[in-house]
Amino acid sequence: MVILKKQAAGVTALALSRFVARACRAAKVDGKVNVLVTTNREMQALNSRFRDKNMATDVLSFPAARNPKSETLGDIAISAEIAAHNAKQLGHSRAEEIKILALHGVLHLAGFDHERDNGKMAREEARLRNALGLPTGLIERTRAPGIRGKKPSTTNRSRKLR
After folding, report:
1. Which residue ranges form the domains of the chain, and what is each CATH number?
2. How far is CA 41 from the centre of its chain?
3. What distance in Å separates the CA atoms of residue 45 and residue 40, rounded to the nearest whole number?
4. How far apart are alpha carbons 35 and 47 in whole angstroms?
């Protein structure tokens, strides 16, 4: 299920749902993923509540409780506002940025943790970005002015979610 509380140009619930399904297949993970595209205010509240970080962030992942009978992999929350800002700075579409964030979230739901895995998630994200036709991913970006903790991409492609 996809909920668009905050609209993003070029993004529909159906298109994002289809992309997340493709990303899950590409990552070889099974299960339903719920996605919320929302405001910075709500992202700040979620980040504060679940991570004790009182600031908005671009993407959060919430793995489902381990239950063999559950078909749900987990939930992903994405800031439409940060996605729009970064897309503009990076020279690609908002839809592409939302896809990048969704893919990043799917990898976290699959059990990857870029803060502790010595580059394993970064390599998998790069492989999947290439397979899915996406520009520079989150892990590859380093701090630079103008990007919310991210480095601009040299890629300049625009494509709507399909």
Report:
1. 2-132 (3.40.390.30)
2. 17
3. 9
4. 16
Q: Give the DSSP H/E element, type plus range, for residue 77.
A: strand 72-79
Backbone angles phi, psi at 38, to 5 degrees: -145, -165
Of residues 108, 110, 111, the one with CA closest to residue 139? 108
Confidence of residue 72 (pLDDT cuts 50, 70, 90): confident
Contact 103, 121 (CB under 8 A): no
The pLDDT assigned to 139 comes to 55
pTM of the model: 0.80
| Amino acid in the structure at residue 127 | R
Query: How far, in Å, CA of 123 to CA of 102, rounded?
Result: 16
Block residue for tokens 């990043």: 104
Query: Which tops the pLDDT comparison, 42 or 118?
Result: 42
